[in-house]
UniProtKB/TrEMBL annotation:
Superkingdom in the source lineage: Bacteria
Name of this protein: Uncharacterized protein
The species this protein was found in: Streptomyces netropsis (Streptoverticillium netropsis)
Length: 118
């Protein structure tokens, strides 16, 4: 089942996809056309997308699967417990991955929303 784009996913995509990069800008234009197809079952917030490719142009990210955007997550103490990766396949948003590198700090999309630094 496909669900509409939840606020946590939309807010993190907005934070990670900058407006100055042409690839990021093209991917931002795709956001209104994506839906969450599936989420990771561990609770991290990783989301896999379905996209109506007929509704938007592909981003100039190249063929195949690429990390189109990434952002490290920093705590108030300056620690980096993880990062957010945005993947594109053939120029279209494919999934948003939440990566955790810490056993002490749970990294989720909620954590990312609070701690991502512009």
């Amino acid at each position: 089942m496909t669900e509409t784009l939840p606020a946590d996913v939309a807010l993190v995509l907005e934070a990670v996809l900058g407006e100055d990069d042409p690839v990021h800008l093209a991917l931002r234009w795709q956001v209104p056309h994506i839906r969450v197809r599936e989420r990771c079952t561990c609770g991290c917030g990783t989301a896999y997308f379905d996209l109506d490719a007929q509704a938007v142009e592909p981003a100039p990210s190249g063929p195949g699967t690429v990390v189109a955007a990434e952002a490290q997550i920093f705590t108030e103490d300056g620690e980096c417990p993880g990062e957010i990766l945005v993947f594109a396949q053939g120029g279209y948003l494919s999934w948003l991955e939440v990566c955790s590198w810490s056993d002490d700090i749970e990294v989720t999309l909620a954590t990312a929303q609070r701690l991502l630094r512009p």
